[in-house]
Amino acid sequence: MWLNRAKVLCPNLVVLPYDYQGYEEVSAQVTDIIHRYAESYCGCVEEVSCDEFFMEICTYDNDELDINIPEVAESIRWDIEHETGCTASIGVGRNKLIAKISSEKVKPNKSFICEDWRNALAQLKLREIPGIGYASEQKLTRCNLNSVMDVWELGAESEAELCSILGKHSGSKLHQYCNGIDDRVVAPVRRKTIGAEWYDSFSNFTYDIILTMSEYLIFRQCTIKAITE
After folding, report:
1. Of the candidates 91, 95, 57, the residue with the CA atom closest to the CA atom of residue 182
2. N or C: fewer beta carbons within 10 Å in the chain?
3. Which residues, other chains included, contact 209 with Cβ-Cβ below 8 Å and sequence gap of 6+?
């Protein structure tokens, strides 16, 4: 929910000041830790947000399992907590989808290695699948599809049914996710936009946005081409 909407619904809402620089500093520390481990295991990192990452590492040496994955996951969590004071959840799976679901399963302070993707998906509501928002959920609910299990029960007709409800692209993607298929690769993404919100008077807006953006850019050692509204 957006802050301005929350203020409308709750006029007496007390909004605590945010520590933008503090968030950035901790995010940078966590980023360094994640990249450190990725480099140690010949892997790569995709930064999803200031506090969410996908990491892919090499777990084999001469076709033999050479890394204790649970130990690596716990070591990363330990380093994050002891270097930043923040807890972390880590999910390990065969692809991005399963890793994400595994991480959500153990928030806010644990790791989970998913070895049975069917068991992990069997417990999910369709709304918990990435890409399924309120509108899509309502369409599926009207067709008595509420969970991954409901999709499985459609059998061979499941993909066609989902496409008829959500459209070809979204229906096929949901069908793949419900069957544990996610072909998205873990790839570094260069950040192209920076977003923020202000609710003060216009006179404060210009000063605040310039100050905050300049602090961010200096901290991240970035440059910009344009500011839009």
Report:
1. 95
2. C
3. 196, 198, 227
Rounded CA Rg of the chain: 21
Which among 150, 106, 112 has a CA at the least distance from the CA of 132? 150
Per-residue pLDDT tens for 23-32?
889 999 999 9
Q: Which two tokens stand for residue 95?
A: 């692809």
Cα–Cα distance, 93 to 103 (Å, whole number): 9
Helices (H), 45-181: 69-84, 96-105, 117-122, 134-142, 148-152, 158-166, 168-178
Q: For residue 172, give the 3-state DSSP assignment.
A: helix
Active site members: 52
d(CA 166, CA 162): 6
In this prediction the pTM is: 0.75
**Of residues 229, 222, 218, 223, the one with CA closest to residue 195:** 229
Residues found in the chain: 229
